[in-house]
Design goal:
alpha+beta, Pnp Oxidase, Chain A, ten-stranded antiparallel β-sheet, 5 helices, 10 strands
Length: about 200
């Protein structure tokens, strides 16, 4: 069967949505997993796997502790790159652009949607900082469980936990093809629109 080529006339947001739907249907674990690359002010890179928690035409959203290394990087250098790789459907998408904070209302709404234990863990964790002993972390969570024993209790979002939005300026869609003759198309923002071109694999 001949695989269809990526259509450079497509809207990159619509194409992202279509590929994410395919990944959700076929990827066995965490189709919203993505690599997030950040860099320090002097350009030292760092990359880690995180989860996409929101996507629309404004950009692509993730949440983190503001004490984390990624947050330190983004304060110093508010640009990032994302990579989605779905081995099950043999596709990947790269996204690059500046990063902006989500609104407090957005962060509050997402924090409230998390499981109780995840919310308590976010409060207890001093993310990316040295842990003297695992028991210290577990005791902090146990203390919070005692403070909020009602599973339906309101647990306020800590001030050091929020989200960021990567505002895309560049997309690259890649689709595996036989004999490493892969299909690869990029979109670059130009004003209010996009310029697309196919690249050699």
């Amino acid at each position: 069967m001949t695989l269809p080529l990526i259509n450079p006339d497509a809207d990159p947001f619509d194409l992202f949505d279509a590929w994410m739907r395919d990944a959700t249907a076929h990827e066995p674990n965490d189709p919203n997993a993505m690599a997030l690359a950040t860099a320090t002010a002097d350009g030292r890179p760092s990359v880690r796997m995180i989860l996409l928690k929101g996507a629309d035409r404004r950009g692509f959203v993730f949440y983190t502790n503001l004490n984390s290394r990624k947050a330190d990087d983004l304060r110093a250098n508010p640009h990032a790159a994302l990579l989605f790789h779905w081995k099950s459907i043999r596709r990947q998408i790269r996204i690059e652009g500046p990063v902006e904070p989500v609104t407090p209302a957005e962060a509050d709404a997402y924090f409230a949607s998390r499981s109780r234990v995840s919310r308590l863990g976010a409060i207890a964790s001093n993310q990316s900082h040295p842990m003297p002993d695992r028991a210290v972390f577990e005791k902090a969570i146990a203390d919070l469980e005692a403070r909020y024993p009602d599973p339906d209790a309101f647990i306020p979002r800590p001030a050091n936990w929020t989200g960021f939005r990567v505002v895309p300026q560049h997309f690259e869609f890649w689709h595996d093809r036989p004999y490493r003759l892969h299909d690869r198309v990029v979109w670059d923002r130009r004003g209010e629109g996009w310029d697309a071109q196919r690249l050699y694999p």
